[in-house]
Amino acid sequence: MVNKASGHAVEVRGLRVRRGSTDVFRGLDFDIPRGQITGLMGPSGSGKTTLMRSIVGVQKVAGGTVTVLGSPAGTTAQRRRVAYDTQAASVYGDLTIEQNLRYFAQVIGAPRSDVGRVIEKVGLEGQAKQTVDSLSGGQESRVSLAVAMLGTPELIVLDEPTVGLDPVLRAELWDMFRGISETGATIIVSSHVMDEALRCDRLILLRAGRIIADTTPQGLIADTGETDPDAAFLALIERDAAGAAEHRPSTRREARDEPGE
After folding, report:
1. Domains, in order of start, for the chain
2. Which of 46, 52, 153, 251 makes an SS bond possible with 206, Cβ 3.0 to 4.6 Å?
3. Mean pLDDT of 44-50
């Protein structure tokens, strides 16, 4: 059981990230509470992966602070406390599920007994001796999730874990996420599939590197008056675009009155 302490799992203040000459984030501020599933939602290119990389401490930042479980993101002390599952499966295809998990358990210093526990948790007991290359896409996603669960981390960061999966597999994975959260762990999960927003406890909606809503599923629906999450997100985008247009300085040159003769 993860210690479900009070306070925030993640605190971000004034986060600035640049890629070349382009600003990805110009000063993000938000908190993520402990023991909940927080969804980072938004279209491709909105900054979800960059934000997750900043939280786990592998992203070069230009300014601001990211505090995770009480200490700066990426510190050695967080190695066993924070797990990161990238969008591309971070496992070895020529090794079996068991071999992958034994290797990663040794890397992070997790007990060997964790291997059987996480295999059972993700429902892959029958495939434990199979190589990852022989698995389906959904099963491979489960192996990556199992790796992230080694050592009972307090914060699990999942980047697009359900991308490309059919609705049944997506539903099964979300049931697993909920089960993990109920043990007290904090989960951050990104997605551009808006119906998954309704499965989260709270939502951070991103667009073009900005947070356009920090809310709950119920708050999203109430704020927009839409019952469909896709329509709700589109309504927020339209509102955001309209607000940006109002504050955009005019580029028209006003005609000057010529003095009369």
Report:
1. 1-71+156-165+185-241 (3.40.50.300)
2. 46
3. 91
